[in-house]
Amino acid sequence: MSDEPPRKRMVRPPTGGTDAGRQTAKRLKSAKDRTPSSQAWLERQLNDPYVAEAKARGYRSRAAFKLLEIDERFHLLRKGARVIDLGCAPGGWVQVALQKGVGAVAGVDLLAVDPLPPAALIQADFTEPGCGERLIELLGGAPDLVLSDMAPNTIGHRQTDHLRIMGLIEAAAEFAIQVLKPGGAFVAKAFQGGETGVMFGELKRHFTDVRNVKPKASRADSSEVYIVATGFKG
Fold this sequence. Notes:
The chain is 35% helix and 18% strand. By secondary structure, the chain is of the alpha/beta class.
């Protein structure tokens, strides 16, 4: 009999979407008419275990696992809660919210999103006047949770891209502060090094706890993080 102590079971990320475990790295058969960056992105998608697992579970995107991880830690998706999802395409976060038993979901995106009943999803520019009011009307009242996975189309100019990103974060935060129920929460995509200090200060005035969180499902080579603000003071 071995004297070694029993090994603890480790929680592991998806292994590739099959019972066979981690798969051999896949490469595209042909790179014809593809740029090097496009080739790299497609190969990364083919070898991403979260992409495979999302397909296996019927999620519309790997982003579903990011929200699942955040919710596991902060317990935001309570049964009966009202949720607004900004930048909801293709619908992965809406799927998770409905799966968790929330009471109502309203979402908006510049892109069209295939229906996910009973969620109310619209194609519109969230930053346009009146869009926020329309979401509240569709939701049937003030939200308990505002989610934002919005990200602008980048042009490759660092300063311009940064300003666009910060503009969306600020718009989402301002909206959340205006409409959330007391005790509610706000989650928004941000980026490391994005000079979010002022934003953090503003959120801390309105929420009891504000943190930067990087889910395991967020790619390691990405600067993407999520701001999670809980305990809205009202």
